[in-house]
Amino acid sequence: MSQATFLNRQALYLRPDPARVIVRPFKPATEPRDLNPTDKTRANHIVDRVLALDPEAASHQLEVVLENFQGRHRNLLETFEARADEMEDAFAAHTTFTRAQRRLVGAYFLHEYSFEASALFNPSIVSHPDQSDAPEGGRRFILSLRAVGEGHVSSLTFRSGTIAADGALRVDPTMRLASTPVVNKRISGPQGDEIEVVFKPNEDISERVIFPVTPAQSNGIEDARFVEFDDGGRKIFYATYTAYSGVAIRSELIETRDFLSFRMSPLRGSASRNKGMALFPRKIDGKFAMIGRQDNENLYLIYSDDLHSWDGGAPLLRPQFPWEFVQIGNCGSPIELDEGWLLLTHGVGPVRRYSIGAALLDKSGCFTPNLRNVRDTYGMSSTPAALCDTTIRSFCPTPSLTLSLILRPSGLLSCSRRWTVERFTVGLVRVESRHDATQERMSESAFRLPKAAPPLPASLRPIAPFSRWSP
Q1: In a domain, 470, yes or no
Q2: Do 46 and 142 have their domain in common?
Q3: Tens digits of per-residue pLDDT, 191-211?
Q4: For the whole model, what pTM was predicted?
C-alpha cells in the first residue's frame, strides 16, 4: 500500500502569534522572587516620583498608558490596581494614593510579554467538559498547547474545536486577547508550592494562559499531557507536565474539571525527577498507572496507590531500532482500544533526528503477537525542530472513534489505521483503510519483540513493537 494512503495534509494550521500578549509582574530585578532591600529602594523611588506629579499630570500620564495598551488587554485598570496592592508590602510608608496614582503606580510594576513569540507546539487533546452545541454524533474538544515566548519561557495555552460524526474537524477561532489566572490559593510544602489558579468564566478558553508562578516553574511549564481520567464514574482531567526552574526539571501534575480552575502540585518519588510522564486514563488492577522515563533512555511502567507519589517502575520498552538508539519517550497517555493499549512513542536517532513510532500493550496478559492488530508499523520522521517531544493525546467522541493529534510547525498531519471497527486518527486529518485479505501483506519481521524487555505484570504486556514509518 502506498504511503500516500496513510498521510495527508489538511488546511488547518495553528501558528504562534507574537502580537498576543499578557501583562506580567515587573520588578527592578527579576530574581529572586521576593524583592531584596536594593529592589525595595528602587521600587520606592518610583513611588516617590509618581507622588511628586501633580494630580492633573498623573491623570494625563495614566491616559497615555491606556491609549498605548488598553486595546491589547482586558480590564487593564483593574489589573493596575491589583498590582499596586501586591507591591504594597515593598513600599515604605507613603501618603494615601488617589485612584489615578494607584493605577499609575501599578502600571510601573507590570510589563507586556509575548507568550507565544517563538513557538506553539506539543499539543494534547481531550473531550470538552461542556458538550452543549456539539455536532450531532460528534464531539467538542479542548486542545492544550505549549507556547514558548520571549526568553524561551514556556507556558500553557488552549484552543477548542469540534469533530463531526464523519471525522471532519474544526478548530475555533483564536481570540485576539489573552489573560492569566488569579492565584486563588498557595500552599507551601517540602516538595514546593501547591497552587490553585482560577480564570474568569467570561473569558474564552483561547484567552487562558497558565504562566509559571512557582520557583520550580520559573523558566517554563512544558509539554502538558492531558488525559480524561475515569475516577469511579466521575470525569476529571489530569495532565503531567515538566516544571523547569532554569536549573532543574521535575514532573508536576495539573488537574481540573472545568478548565476554569486548575490545581497544580509537585509529584514525589524517584520516578518524578525527570520529564515525560504520561498517566493512563483509568486505574489498572486498582492502582494508578504511569508511563515514565526516569533514566533518560527507556520507558517504564509505574504503578502507585498515590497519584502524587511515583517510585520505581518496571522497564517496558528499550531502544531497539536505529531511529531510536539514543532514547525513546512517550507521546502522551496510552489510548485504550478493544485490542489493547496503543502507546505512541518518539525516538531519537542519528544527528538527533526525531521519529514517531508505536507499541501495542496487551490488556489480557497474552504476550503472543496478534497479527490483525499489528498489521502495520508506523513512525513519522522529521527534523528535530519539527517533532522534538511532540505530544499526542486522545479522546473518544464516539465508541468507534479515537482522535489523537500531531502538531508540526508545517501544519497538522496524520497517519492512521482502521482496526476492525476502530477508526484511529492522528492529527487533524482522517485516513481509513480496511483489514482484508488483499491487504494482509505481512512478514514475520513485523512481530519481533524487544529482546531487552523483561517480563511485565500480567495486566499489561507489550504485544509487539511498531517500527518506523517514514513519509
Answers
A1: no
A2: no
A3: 889 999 999 999 999 999 999
A4: 0.77
